[in-house]
Amino acid sequence: MRFVSPVLKHVAYPVLHHTGCLRRITPIGGYSVVNYHGVVPSDHSDPESFLDGNLVQPEVFRQQLQFLKAHYHIIHPDDFRARIEQGKPLPPRTVLVTCDDGLVNTLTDMLPVLQSERVPCLFFVTGASCSNNPGVLWYEELYHLMRIKPLNGLEQQLPTEDGTESPAPKSFQARWWSTVRRASRLDARARTDWMGLVRIYCGPTRSLQSERRWRLLNIAELKRLSEAGMSIGAHTLSHPVLSLGSEEEARREIRDSKIEIESALGRPVWAFAYPFGNSSTLGEREVRLAQEAGFTCAFLNVEHWGDGPSNLFVLPRIHVTKNTTLPEFAAHLSGLHTRLQRAVGG
């Protein structure tokens, strides 16, 4: 699929989009779920191309919402919940809008666009947003710290990925991701302690100066987002790679995030989103733990999950990035992209 994707993105999808063919295709299951990770705030003057790839420009976000309003039925998250829990039918060509991580720009820059377009959204936040000083996503901070200087001996304090040493990855991004995976094998407290050592060793980073880009929502801001009519779901306590930690730690990350957010907001939290949300970061254990925690459903961050039967705890989502064109967006919404993936076994 990766070899034909450029042709689909730049040739086939634009033709199908502009001729209106995609609007005649019904999404798989009758509905689609789109997922964002925030928008680029206006005060973010030092872009990091790799990490910022998950964010979209506010004007692009607005354009995509307007496309959804023109060609689909955008539903409130509560209606999606009612479909699952009570079997209530959804309108044809339904779309649910979601957003992961709980960056503060979801309140300052994303919410105004949602409100002006009158679009509801299901936001998935971590347990860090139940505090007054939530900080930043640890793996994004680690990326910037590793840019300052190599970690050298500090990496040796982390568990190996598979219990044995392997050759060091060559590219910076590969080394960073390997370190994220190794740090995810620690429990949250040990990982926090290790990150403290990394900060001392590497020194302060100027790359995190845009608070609206990097900081997570604090509890007061989370309440404002909820009071604005947006729904809130859980995204673990600290956003590790769940499949690499112990079962006890994975259970705590999933279950306690639900408990803490419910306590902070005083309302039920029924939906869960897996951190990173793909087959390399979660498995059957995490799916079982999400169900045992009492959630109604759980979402992935990919559109295609194996060849097994439909499961409410592996619900696919369309991951929107800064490079997602409108024709590509339309092709994913229609389900055509997923059908092609399944056809070629991608």
Secondary structure: elements and pairs:
Elements: H1 5-18, E1 31-36, H2 58-71, E2 73-74, H3 77-86, E3 94-101, H4 105-117, E4 122-125, H5 138-148, H6 172-183, H7 188-202, H8 211-214, H9 219-227, E5 231-234, H10 247-265, E6 271-273, H11 284-292, E7 297-299, E8 318-319, H12 326-334, H13 336-344
Parallel strand pairs: 1-3, 1-8, 2-3, 3-4, 4-5, 6-7
Brief description of this entry?
This protein is α/β, with parallel strands linked by helices and 346 residues long. It folds into two domains: 5-135 and 215-344, TIM Barrel (Alpha-Beta Barrel); 138-202, no CATH class. Helices cover 43% and strands 9% of the residues.
CATH domain class name of the largest domain: Alpha Beta
CATH topology of the largest domain: TIM Barrel
In the CATH hierarchy, what is the architecture of the largest domain at level 2?
A: Alpha-Beta Barrel
Q: Overall pLDDT, averaged?
A: 93
Total tally of structural domains = 2
Query: How are helices and strands ordered from N to C?
Result: HEHEHEHEHHHHHEHEHEEHH
Spell out the CATH superfamily of the largest domain.
Answer: Glycoside hydrolase/deacetylase
Low-pLDDT windows of residues:
none
Q: What separation lies between the terminal Cα atoms?
A: 6 Å
Number of strands: 8
Radius of gyration: 20 Å
Which structural category fits the helices and strands?
alpha/beta
Helical content class = 40-55%
Strand content: 5-15%
What is the helix tally? 13
The rough form would be described as globular
Summarize the main sheet: 6 strands, parallel
Give the assembly state of these chains: single chain
